[in-house]
Amino acid sequence: MELKEDDVVLCKVQKIEGTTVFLEIEGFSVAGSMVLSEVAAGRIRNLRQYVSPNRLVVCKVLKLAGGHAELSLRRVTGRERDATLEAYKKEKAFRSVLKFVGENPDKILAEIKKDYSLIDFFVDVKEDSQVLENYLGKEKAAKVLQVFSEKEGGEKAADRKIVLRSEGREGVEDVKYILNVDAEIHYLGNSKFSVKVAGKDFKEANGKMQEVMAVIEKRAKEKKAVFETEKEK
Question: How confident is the model at residue 154 (pLDDT cuts 50, 70, 90)?
């Protein structure tokens, strides 16, 4: 696949110089950069609250010229971000399973990406196993699907979206302290975060989530930070 304008891509922050962020676009040999106005809407008090070296962020391609991409973080919708991060997780798992069945992950993924975005590929595979057979053959495709099925049938996850904001002098450090919990945390922009915990079943995952939320709420009160849980839509 070729990189195109309006594509939503996973990027790794390389460095920050002044008000410009330089990024590496995962899966493409194209350098990217992002100006301050495309990081977030409004005034940004601390750029590193949104981007920091080696951090993975989901961006939208605004313009392509001479092997360079102009990127935006603020123009990515929540749905686009979630879908891209989910595809990234599935790709990591897919690579592991391909190695398990004796295939070369880089080779297979390169062939797939000629025809699909990974988001579309995993959706199509879920609906029709023949899609995977086209790249692996019937026997190995069946083995890969079996391993994925076993993984999905095991660990379950609970997700929650929260709003967390500190107006104190050490606001960023306060937020880091509050969110230093046993959970997977992703920043969604505008003081919103996703919190994810896993368990052997939904009951265990939800129990862990309640414990994590209790810790976050207690620390938020301690630091006099704004803390809210978002209702599921």
Answer: low
CA 104 to chain centre: 24
- Mean pLDDT confidence for 194-209: 83
**Angle, CA of 182, 184 and 190, to the nearest 5°:** 120
Longest dimension (CA), the chain: 60
| Dihedral sign, Cα of residue 37, residue 7, residue 97, residue 123 | positive
Is a pLDDT exceeding 90 seen at residue 41? no
Give me 35's structure tokens.
Answer: 């100006």
Provide the strand spans (E) within 7-155: 8-17, 20-25, 31-35, 56-65, 68-72
- Per-residue pLDDT tens digits for 160-199: 899 999 888 888 899 999 999 989 999 988 899 999 988 7
**Is the Cβ–Cβ distance between 21 and 50 less than 8 Å?**
no
Element (H, E) at 80: helix 78-100
Annotate 197-217 with b (16+ C-beta within 10 A) or e (fewer): bebeeeeebeebbeebbebbb
101 CB burial (10 A radius; 0-12, 13-18, 19+): middle
pTM (2 d.p.): 0.59
Residue 114: which H helix or E strand, with range?
helix 105-115
Asked whether the predicted pLDDT for residue 48 surpasses 80, the reply is no
- The distance from CA 118 to its chain's CA centroid, rounded to whole angstroms, is 13
Contact 5/61 with Cβ under 8 angstroms?
yes
Strands ordered across the beta sheet of 192-199: 184-189, 192-199, 156-165, 226-229
